[in-house]
Design a protein that fits this description.
Structural class: mainly alpha
Shape: elongated
Distance between the termini: 97 Å
Oligomer: single chain
Helix content: 40-55%
Number of helices: 5
CATH topology of one domain: Arc Repressor Mutant, subunit A
Length: 136
């Protein structure tokens, strides 16, 4: 696993962030930390897994730079590192905007075209051409 660092390779940083967020338990930990700092025991309780498993998940999140931990005596407290989430959000946003612009252009183009018939309205059968009157 690549360690998160400010001056590191951008691609490796995003790989670590998205890898860390790929697990539902790690996302649950991030969700809980959005409410404020929490101890490892408090984070482990709702997950239904062993304490060592939670510690491994926390290590992945910390290596990705998504959380920080502080040990005071026997208690380890985890805190969300929002800058990493902002970087991921910015990365996603730069990829989303061109797609949204393309869809906006498509919508404008389709709006400028003649509107198709409304399928909810009954269509009138075509009127047959008028018969030519025989010349006398």
């Amino acid at each position: 696993m690549v360690k998160y660092s400010e001056g590191g390779n951008e691609e490796a940083i995003f790989d670590a962030i998205f890898h860390a967020l790929s697990d539902p338990r790690r996302r649950a930990i991030i969700t809980r930390l959005c409410e404020g700092p929490a101890t490892v025991s408090a984070l482990a309780a709702p997950l239904g897994v062993s304490l060592p498993a939670v510690v491994q998940h926390l290590a992945v999140l910390e290596e990705a730079g998504l959380i920080t931990t502080l040990k005071s005596g026997r208690v380890r407290t985890c805190t969300l590192a929002p800058d990493a989430l902002r970087r991921a959000e910015a990365w996603i946003s730069t990829r989303r905007l061109p797609q949204e612009r393309a869809l906006d252009r498509l919508g404008a183009f389709l709006s400028s075209q003649s509107s198709p018939p409304d399928p909810s309205k009954p269509s009138k059968p075509p009127t047959p051409p008028a018969k030519a009157q025989p010349e006398e």
